[in-house]
Amino acid sequence: MLKGTLDLLILRTIELQPRHGLAVSERIAQITRGTFVVKPGSLFPALHRLEQEGYIAGAWGESAQGRRAKVYDITPAGRKRLAAERKSWDRIVTAVGQVLDPT
Amino acid sequence: MPLGARMRSAWRTITRQRALDADLDAELRAAVDELAAAHRAAGLRPAEARRRALLDLGGTEQVKEQVRDARVGAPALTLLRDIALAWRGLRKAPAFTFAAVVTLAIGVGANTATFSLVNAVLLQPLPYHAGDRLVFVWSDMTAAGYPRGPLSGPELADLRGQATRFEGFGAIWATTTALTGDNDPQQLRIGLVTANFFSLLGAGAALGRTFVDEDEPTAGPTTILLSDGLWRTRYGADPAIIGRRVLVNDQPTTVIGVMPPGFRLLMPPDSNVPEQLEAWQPFNRNMTRGPRGQMFLRVVGRMRDGVTVDEAARDVATVAADIGARYAEYGSAGRRFSTVGLHDDGVRDLRPALFVLQGGVAVLLLIACVNVAGLLVARAAGRSRETALRLALGAGRHRLISQCLAEGLVLAGLGAAAGLTTGGILLRLLAAARPASLDRIADVGLDPTVLAFTAATALAVALAFSFAPLAEMVRTNLLGLLHQGGRSLGSAFHHRVRRALVVLQVAMGVVLLVGAGLLVRTFANLTTVQPGFEPGGVLTFRLGLPGNRYRTQESLDAFARELERRLASLPGVAHAGAISHLPFDNIPNWSTTYLTEAGGDESRARRADSRAVSPGAFQAIGARIVEGRDFTEDDDKDGELVAIVDERLARLAWPGASAIGQRLATDPRVTGRPTVWVKVVGVVRHLRHLTLLEDVREQVYFPVRQAHRNPMAWMVRATGDPASLSGPIRTAVAALDPQLPVFDVRPLSDYVVGARAIQRFTMLLAAVFAGLALLLASVGVYGVIQYGVTRRQPELALRVALGAGRGSVVRLVVGEGLRLALAGLALGLAAALVAVPAMGSQLYGVTPRDPISYIVAMPVLAAVALAASAMPAWRAARINPADGLRAE
């Protein structure tokens, strides 16, 4: 996975709907049809770092199955960051695309 | 993320660690539950579901570790945790920690204290404005035996007029005068100065002003500048003192200023300008017109900016050569001046002594480093199994090194703190034991830069040693190390290193011991020097007779005769007499050119120190007349002009013949020319009055009734305790003249003690350093022997089990101690032979190869080794064979 991509994926996933840790990785796997499988060993450190950096906020709530879980929601700073990441991602995609298919 | 927010996050990571971890724990537990539920839903049994859930997560502990590492500020947290770990580890090993911290405290403290002193005295510039541009000008009369003499007034004027590399020249002459009128009469030690003297130094007054040219009087001094001390003691620090009239030498004199507290005149010691004078007065304006041969001025020059001392010296030498050729007074010999940096010259006697001390204390620091290194090596050895285990279990090598560093940091912090305290105490002790010539160290403080530097040095050396075994271990075959119980391989290396370190330590201790031994012998030699007089049992004091009340020679003589008679008849007094200079006082020296034949070349004649003595003086001071007679009351203004010379002058002037009855042309009144012919009536044993170390210069003594001096120093030799005479003496003086201040009441022995104060100071310090060095070395020896016993416990137990006597076990252990000490001794003696000659200039009466100082080191070292191995030997002897063997 590209450096920084994980943050982008996590922020985007949470932006759509607040989720707890495992739900985030499940959702990513689901949407990408298994292309990206985020292991807990990468997921939890990333979540905690993003939380410390103030881009997401965790609070104890309930999982879909009604279990107690720590649910993460995006913060305004996180939205800004996501927008920025998105822009730069688009730039990369466009740039790489231009290299692959020069018009 | 902004820096401020990042710092706050890092701070939270560190301070809220527990809460963060608890939260993480709950979160992960919830995740496991979630996963397990999913597996159960898929039909697995609860236990299996849970196992799979844990596998999916990849181990909760591992995830937790990864999360912790990802936190903002995680590296700082790791370091803090290592430090906390080190702190706990050190607390669990109090003996090790205590030994290491005490060692660092001694090494760092002693170095910081000594270097703070050296820095203040030798390295810091003089406390005057641009002090490095100040030079001192000596008159160089080496051929006459006076390489460092004063200048005359006209010569000062010549320098001012002709030397181009200077902003100016000033001069001072220390003398005494009487302060009367508003209070009890008081004799003052004052400096007569040129009006520009203080502005030349760049020293200002705290109150009022210093002198300006208009202050130089044409008839009789009229202004005075007070020291802070005099202002406080006599005038109660009255700020309205400026402009007030006081009576100085019975002359109305205006106070123009007060110098700041702590103002000192740091002139060369042999210029006889005391560091702390009580007041200053300007020279008479026509002082520069006096005779060229009347040399009394201590001349200081300020070089122009950018001029070097060499250039300045050439400039002054040119002036000297010019006036030498121009004026007939200098005859065929001409004139020579030598110019030296004021600071350099002022500390020239102290510099070698301080360097010897600094050298000694640096060795002490080395020993301390080695001791800490040895302790750390021992600690590493004790942990080699643990280290191997941790490596085997996958601990990162950088983690081990970082923990090693953390322990070093903690030790350094403790050592520096302890060193600061020790250094402060040592510095105060140094200040308390200071000789008069080092008076200025009274207010020296610890130098923080030096403290930091020495603490860092000690620790860098120690850490280098503690890393070495760690590096060795990291390279080692772990399996082998674990297999051997983590003992034999790593430890053998450690043990070798430690033994080598201890030998080195003992060797350095021996070097210090030999050095201290030589200084003790030097001091002992100085206390037994025969100075040519008997300093014990004599009380001295000074009297100055005011000129307005004692106008005539007759009145002066009558007073002195009567006082001498009354003093000598006091109960408990054996002899009483007066002399112009006491040995080792700081009154400006008087000297005279002398000729044995009429018409001789005055300019090439030798000079002798000249003194005026009363008839009882030689008996009172305990001098020995070796030929001829002492002075009597008949040697007065009506008698033939006579003199007594010392053996040295007699031998030089009339080799192979008796001096008695010979005639000398001299200058008893310091007029500048030897025009007074005197007959030699006696020869006295040379009196060492400038240095205890050797006979320097010839001496000529005049009867005071024929060569008046005022003030005079009086000496009273007691049959019992001289201190008890001070009351009767004051009464006797007051009975003759109640207005006279009796001052400088001190035993004669005080002056002699002062003459060897530097040597006493050096010796004391060296002895303390050597003692500390031996203490550290014996701790080192103890540590290594003790460790050896622990290491060899199975072997010793086996020996005992097989029937070896306790005695042989003790011999084995003590033998090990002795072997180490012997190796250290041999190495140390060899090193001392090479290193100790560097302190040759500090020795008196012993050579740097003095066998006694070396031989003494042997029993001392043997005692150290025995003391250090006694405890381990006792423990070894009590080994229970069963326990010892089981320990394997």
Low-confidence stretches of chain B: 486-490
CATH class of chain A: Mainly Alpha
Sheet with most strands of chain B: 7 strands, mixed
Shape of chain A: globular
Provide the CATH architecture of chain A. Answer: Orthogonal Bundle
Number of strands of chain B: 23
Label the structural class of chain A: alpha+beta
What percent strand of chain B? Answer: 15-25%
CATH topology assignment of chain A: Arc Repressor Mutant, subunit A
Overview of this structure, please?
The complex is a heterodimer of chains A (103) and B (888). Chain A has helices at residues 5-16, 21-31, 40-52, 76-100, and strands at residues 19-20, 56-62, 68-74. Chain A has 103 residues and is α+β, with helices and mostly antiparallel strands. Chain A has a single domain (5-96), classed as Winged helix-like DNA-binding domain superfamily/Winged helix DNA-binding domain (Arc Repressor Mutant, subunit A), CATH 1.10.10.10. Chain A has a 3-stranded antiparallel β-sheet with strand order 1-3-2. In chain A, helix 1 packs across helix 2 (21-31) and helix 1 (5-16) crosses helix 4 (76-100). The two termini of chain A are 28 Å apart. With 888 residues, chain B is α+β, with helices and mostly antiparallel strands. Chain B is elongated and about 140 Å long. Chain B has 4 domains: 3-72, no CATH class; 131-304, no CATH class; 350-527 and 757-886, no CATH class; 545-740, no CATH class. In chain B, 43% of the residues are buried. Helix content of chain B is 52%, strand content 15%. Chain B contains 27 helices and 23 strands. Mean pLDDT of chain B is 87; it is low at 486-490. The A-B interface holds A 20-22, 39-42, 44-46, 48-49, 52-54, 58, 63, 65, 67-70 and B 1, 5, 9, 12-13, 23-24, 26-28, 30-31, 33-35, 37, 56-58, 62-63, 66-67, 69-72.
